[in-house]
Each structure stands twice: as structure tokens, then as C-alpha cells.
Amino acid sequence: MDHLLEVRDLRVRFRIDKHSSVEAVKGVSFVVPRNSTVALVGESGSGKSVSSLAVMGLLPAGQALVGPASRILFAGRDLLALAPAARRRICGKDIAMIFQEPMSSLNPVFSVGFQIGEVLRLHLGMNRAQARLRTLALLDEVGIADAARKIDAYPNQLSGGQQQRVMIAMAIACAPRLLIADEPTTALDVTIQQQIIELLARLQRERQMSVLFITHDLGLVGEIADSVIVMRHGEVREAGPVRQIFDQPRDAYTRALLHCRPPLDARPRRLPVIADYMDGELNGKPGAAAGAAEDLAPGSAGVAIPAPAPERVRGYLPGDDKVLVVENLSKSFFLREGWFGRREFQAVKNVSFTLARGKTLGVVGESGCGKTTVGLTLLRLHQASGGRAMFEGKDLLAMPAREYQAYKRRIQIIFQNPYASLNPRFTVGQILLEPMRIHRIGADDRERGATARRLLDRVGLPAAAMHRYPHEFSGGQRQRIAIARCLTMQPEILVCDESVSALDVSVQAQVLNLLQDLQDEFGLSYIFISHDLAVVRYIADQVMVMHQGEVVELANSDELYRNPRHPYTRALLAAIPRGVAAPI
Fold it and tell me: Hey, which of 265, 329, 441, 467 has its CA 20 to 30 A from 225?
């Protein structure tokens, strides 16, 4: 087969200091055939993004060292042997890249039209008028509505999905032969994600491009890729056609990635994690941690997986103890118009629900539907415009600030981004002790320290973590620290705001299992906000679907997924990536 890109024995080492370095990519080899889509799959730290940056020549100069025997051949030319100017003529024109986070990739001080036009002027020599006409055509091609107006918009004036479409327009502007898409849908809603995947697939067919699609979600891979390369710890673990990888994965790590994601057709008590499979790697079977190795059941991908534990009893029953009753909750924001005018924007409109003790309410919908605003308003991080939130017979939204102080610790929140929610200048010990001191929990710091160490152990972190800083931990470990911080308050309600959406599927499984264990142990009630319907299906007892600030459907989880009544709910469920082995 004719290969457009060939990577041979790629090794990339990063300097830590004058005397030490770490090897991030260890002899990786793979090919991307012409007119095909190849998926590069693995968890954070697997080396997949470093490999793509090496192809583009975007590794940090002076810090990253590429092995002397490494070769990156594009259409037969070794990119690593080219002079910088010659390589720049290829990268950006014949090879283009879509980055993971469009808001940080687009320059906030230039219009999107200027940024796309800059590519055309630089690589194709167009003048401004020609570049503007071509930019309008590109925006229309990637599905930007009202392109004549959006061409002069700034990135912050566009939604996340529109920003990603702008990045795609910029990448295809010079008709590249190879398009590298680095996690292009990770932070997007399920419906927007589906649109981006369909757009990339259409562009690949129409333009006869080759696509290197980088992701950690094998379910997504099944809908776009022709072949798959699975990476872990800087090495290729398995490679082959997508059907073979899904139906007959040979590597334990590949099987783990396939089964860590919550299934849509069952709701096990616990999700398998990477260690469950890697512990049994030598005998080719999942480890005993997920279930007895000799007691295996056929999986949806045609391989043996641990037999599922009995399913958790789900749903709200009439006799469930009500811990929180929300009635007609509303929240409006006021936007300036002109010099003196202002316009009301209703973010949340008359939302009502009941949260039972020890149960989970899932809140789902696209970005901008008001689900996060509901959570923040309940915690009084936004001031409600109307409605009530009854907790132990008292309205949390109406009570004076001094009276509410006693209730603050009983309703806590886990934010989406643990990188931003933990103070980088505090050690983990300081992060955990500070809220206990403020709320006078514990007799003294010795008792508080013992509580903090006990909670760290409960969330799976060693006591030595008390003396380390947040940047020394992975994303999943930071989210565990954030959960431990909430538990120091001995809360009764936890608002989980997209708390697992940015995590790898394996780390996501660990955190979801932890949340289930904590709910069983402490009787916690969760308001679980997410745009990932597979995750919500697994964890929620009841699901509330929001659209444009309103509740369009509210039902027990099993009933809603089995028989969705509202067209918007059906559209959300239809957009869930199901992989190659499941019917679409």
C-alpha cells in the first residue's frame, strides 16, 4: 500500500536539567496510508501528542531531543533531514494540524477571518481580497452559519464548536495532504462532537486527505478510523485495522481501554480499570481485581471481559428521603446594550427537581443549556433571580449570609478543572486543612491532619502526598485531592460539575468508582452535571435533561434511556459514540 507518512523508530527525549532527561517516545513506528484515517490512541502521557508534534516540527527547541536513528518520511522525504525553511514550506501547507483546545490556539486579539487569511497569504501568496473570499468559502465549507458576519468575529464571540470549526477551516485552507487532529472533540458536547466527527469524515472523503486522529476514546475511533495504533508509556502496544482491534484485541491494554468506558447496555456496580487488565497481562486475561479471571463473559467487542458484578438498584422510589427540593429556580444575567441600555438573558427558567438522600441526579445538556448555572446558583455562587431550594425545611436561597454560613460546608462542589481549582502555592496538606480551620472542624491541627491523611487514604493517595504540591500530581490524582477537600467538610450534597469530562477513560473509571464507594459509605447525594450521557447513564438514578435553560425531560435513568420522550433527549442519545461493534 502507498504510504503518505512513515514514522520509523521515533525516539524523543526531554531534558529535565543538565544531568537528567526522560524518554517520552521509545522507538515508535507506524504508517499513514494515502486517503485513509489512522487513529493514534492512548492515555495522557502515552506519547501520542509528542509523536504528532515531532511530525509537525513543533517540539520545544533545546528541550526535546529526537533520536539520531529516527526517521519521519512524508511522501518519501525525511522531514528530520530538511532545513528549517524547507520544512516550514511543508508543515502548514501539505501537513496541517488541529489542536485540542481552540480557545488557547486562536489569537484572541485578531478576528477569525484575519487568522485564516494569514495562512493563505503566507503559504499561497494571496492578497487580502483574495484571502477574504477564500476564507468565506472555507467558513461555509466547515458549516459556519452566516459566514459573512462571523468572518469578522473574535474567538471569544464564538461557541466551542464554532471555534473548532474555525481551526478546521484554518487547517484545510491550503488543501493539505495530511491532517493531524489532536483530540479535536475532547471538551465538546456530544452533539457538537458528532458534528465535528462527521465534518472531518466528509472533508477526508471529498479532499482525499490522509488523517491522523489522536484521541483517548476508542468508542470515538470506531466511528471515524480505518486503522488504529494503541500507545502506552511511549511505545506502540498494538496496531491494526479498526475492526480487528475492536473484535479481537490482542493486547491487555487495548482490552482495558475498550472496557473502561461505561457501557450503554448495562450498568455494573463497578467499572473495570487499567490495573484489572494489566495485572493479568502475562496470562492474557483480565486480572482478578475486576472479577474472577476464570469467570469471564463475552464483551461487546467480541473478547472476554470480567463478568459484571450485580447491578446497583437505580431510580427514585416514592419513599426516598428528600434531602433537597428545588422549585421554579430561575437565574437571569443582564448584558449591556449601547451606552445606557441592558438586555436580560434568562440562563435558567423555572427549574424544579427533588434530590433524594444517597441518590444521584444527573443533569445533562449541551453547553449553554444552564446546567452549570443551576449548580452554581444552588451554592449561592450566583444570586438566584427566583425560586426556592428547600433544605431541612429552610430556603437556602433566601436565608441571610450569616445564617447560610452554617450550611456552606454541607453542600460542596467538585469543579471540572482540578488544575484551576487547587491553589498551586499550597501543599496538599494546606489545601485540606484550610477549610477545616475556617469551619472549625476538629479540635486542633493534629486532629485535622489525621482527618486529612485518612481522607487521602480513602481516595487512594498516600499520606506522603500531604507535603507535595498540586503540579506534582496527574489530572486524576488532582481530582481525587479535590474530592478529599470536599469530604473534609463532611458534606451531605456534592455538586459534581463536569468533574470527569477532561479525564482519560481509565482515570474516569477510577473516579466514578470512587464516587460510588463514597456514596455508599457516607450516604452522599450527588447532583452530577455532565454532557457525557454514557457516564450519566452509569452513575445517575434520575436524569434531568436541560435545553435553553429549561427542563425538557425528567425521569428515572433506566426509563429515560430506554424510552426517551422529548425529541431533544432522543437527539442527545443518538449522538453518543458507540464504536464499530455497536449498532448506530
Answer: 265
